[in-house]
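Batch queue: ligand-bound targets. Current item pairs a single chain with S-adenosylmethionine. No template structures supplied; prediction is de novo from sequence plus SMILES. Inputs echoed for audit trail.
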Amino acid sequence: MMFFFLALFIIILCIIALFSFPQFSPIPYFPSNMKDKEIILAGLNIKNDQTIFDLGAGDGVVIFEAAYEALKHRLNTRFVALEINPILITLMYIKWLLHPNRKNVKIVWGDMFKIKFKSQMSNVKRITFYLYISPWLIEKVITRIKKQIPHAQYVSYYYPIKSLKKKEVIREGVHTLYLYE
Ligand SMILES: C[S@@+](CC[C@H](N)C(=O)[O-])C[C@H]1O[C@@H](n2cnc3c(N)ncnc32)[C@H](O)[C@@H]1O
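Prediction returned. Tokens below.
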């Protein structure tokens, strides 16, 4: 019994550490507000032959809604949910198992500052990145993406991408959505 409580205590400590320490996750987990679902889905502009990445996908709230939308319109859109936190990855796998469009959704446990984006894609006509990440890290990840994929669309929730200011289109919801072609 004592061993059980000790194990439980250690597991809880590990979970708290994974969500609290910047060494494990420099960008804290906040899901996109689903009151903004419609503007987010419209902003992603889901099409055939498109790959949509959610960089730091959290529990997959955006990617799974977008995958429902693609299925509804019989689109072959591919979705890549990249996440660094193993607990959120586990949660996404459970959701993935139950999702009717799971064949088009890929869950990737990895670091957006290390991953090779091209190795995760199959539909390459149109590539879209959904971002809801700390403003001090947005430019760093955009620079990485641009080196690997020069022509991509970006949909940024809450935070503008200053280096793409000239191409900015704004959609207002509970929070602002910034679109860049
Ligand atoms: C603000 S949340 C956004 C979650 C989700 N995109 C959404 O909109 O609901 C940011 C997420 O990025 C993840 N994250 C932080 N650093 C990361 C990294 N280097 N690579 C991949 N994911 C990361 C965090 O664990 C967290 O789940």
